[in-house]
Amino acid sequence: RQFEQSSHISLLQTALDARDNLDEGSRGRISIDLKRSQFWDLKPVSFCPEFPQCKANLALQWHAVHQYEPIPYEYPPEDLFEHLLALYWEHLNPFYPLLHRPTFEKSIAAKLHLYDQTFGSTVLAVCALASRYSDDPRVLYGDMTSKHSAGWRYFNQIEFVPNIFLESPSVYALQVYPLSVIFMLATHMVETCWVLIGTGVQLAQMIGVHR
User: Which GO BP terms, alphabetically (predicted)?
Assistant: First the structure.
C-alpha cells in the first residue's frame, strides 16, 4: 500500500523524528510492560475449510473480514458463460485491453470467481458487457424482453464498496471500475461514471499506481 506525505503514517513518522530530536538522537524502544495485549496481539480467525486457498490471504486478526469465502453471486449457466466470455474477447477486449487474457482464463479455470469477491465482481462486469452482444434471451433482466435490459442481471450484483479496508486493493478490485464505467456509458445514468472513476482512482492511488 502506498502512503503519501499527507497520510497518518507520515504524520506518525514526523512525530517519531521530533521525539528523537528532543531526546538528542536517542531511539528508546517501547517497554514490553507498556504494551496492552488487546491492541498489540493478533487475534486468530477461523479459516473457511471449503477453500484452503484462503489461508494465504486472510490476515490473522479478529477484525479481518473473510474476503475469500463462498459468495452468493449468480453467474450464467456454463454454456452461456462460455458464450459471453467469447463475445467479450471478440468485441470489447480489442478496444479496451483491460484484462490479461491468459491470467483471466487461468483464474476462471481455477474457479477463483466462486470464492474471491473482487474477481467475482470483475467476472460479472465482463458478463454484463458481453450480454449486449448476445441474442440469448437469458441475458435479459428478469422477465423483460427489452434488449436494453441485457446485462443488468449481472451488473446489479457487483459490490463496489470493498468490505475490507485493512488490505491493499487487488488488481481485480481496480479492473471492475473501468469495466463498469464502460457499461454505464451506454445507459441513461452516465453521470454515475464520475463516481466510479473517482473511486477507482482513489483505489489505484492506495497501491501507488500513480508513482
Answer: DNA-templated transcription
- The whole-number pLDDT of residue 119 equals 93
Distance of alpha carbon 175 from alpha carbon 162, whole angstroms: 13
Report percent pLDDT > 90 for the chain.
Answer: 45
Q: Which among 132, 28, 131, 42 is positioned nearest to 80, based on CA atoms?
A: 131
Instruction: Tell whether the model's pLDDT for residue 9 goes beyond 80.
Output: no
Residue 35 confidence (pLDDT): 58
- Say if residues 140 and 133 touch (Cβ distance below 8 Å): no
How far apart (Å, rounded) are the C-alpha atoms in residues 54 and 194? 33
Return d(Cα 136, Cα 194) in angstroms, integer.
31
From CA 32, how far away is CA 44, in angstroms rounded? 21
pTM to 2 decimal places: 0.69
148-155: average pLDDT: 94
**Burial grade of 137 (CB within 10 A; 0-12, 13-18, 19 or more):** exposed
Tell me phi and psi for residue 68, to 5 degrees. -105, 85
Residues 2, 205 contacting (CB under 8 angstroms): yes
Quote the cell numbers at residue 4. 503519501
Q: What is the pLDDT of residue 23?
A: 63
